[in-house]
Amino acid sequence: MLHLLRKVCARKSSADDSVNEQRILKHALDSFATQGYAASGLRAIAKDADVTAPMVNYYFKTKESLYQRVGAMVLDAVASTIAEAWPTEGGLEDILRTNLEAHLRFTAEFPEAIAFLFGLLYGPSGGAPLIDFSKYEEVEERVRKAFERATRTGELALLEGVTRQDAVELYQAFVLSMVSHAFKARRFGKPALDPRAAVRRLGMVLAGIGTLRVEAKRSVAR
After folding, report:
1. Distance, CA of 20 to CA of 3 (rounded, Å)
2. What is the pTM of this model?
3. Total domains, the chain
4. By residue range, what is the domain housing residue 70?
5. Torsions phi, psi of 162, nearest 5?
6. Which one, of 81, 87, 220, 70, lies nearest residue 149 by Cα?
7. What's the CA gap between 213 and 141, in Å, rounded?
8. Which alpha helices (DSSP H) does the chain contain, by range?
9. Residue 162's domain is classified under what CATH number?
10. What is the tens place of the pLDDT at every residue in 123-181?
11. Residue 105 neighbours by CB under 8 Å, 6+ apart
12. Which residues pair with 212 in a beta bridge?
């Protein structure tokens, strides 16, 4: 699905009927990301995609199903990006850093997809249908298992009063904040987030969670 998102986001206008579905997805993603669900209409999406409204109905039947298809495409692409980057070995820092960097790369490559996701999380529902988040929940489960293994083996000693669930939630909130920072910088023409700064801040977050064994540590700053 990551490959599909790349094709969709790069799609240019074409008279070839075989690419009509991808063009519709591209302009639907743009519309839902910038205008929200309620303000997006199939006729407007069809016009932007240079196809007829009946053709949109042919491929996607309803606005609800088109919205859900866009959501599945975006979430599957995020999950694919993380899965491809996930290290097969290494300590907790390696895993958390890689996950953070993969999120930031996705944000840089697909800002419209991030805008769509932020609309899901923070925008008014506008009657939008539910989106299946199970693919991204797989990413969150990978993070939970990494913390569980690190605390079980003694690689990570949590500070007094900090639970493993606290650690997971603090880290995930940090990743979301870095994605938001990177996205807003691009959107408002501000200096891009330096990935090295994000990784340095990861070290600060980990220091506030617990202590990594010296022999198990991996350098956060490359």
Report:
1. 17
2. 0.89
3. 1
4. 2-216
5. -100, 120
6. 87
7. 23
8. 2-10, 20-39, 42-49, 53-60, 63-85, 92-109, 111-122, 134-153, 164-187, 195-207
9. 1.10.357.10
10. 888 899 999 999 999 999 999 999 999 999 999 999 999 999 999 999 999 999 999 99
11. 81, 85
12. 156
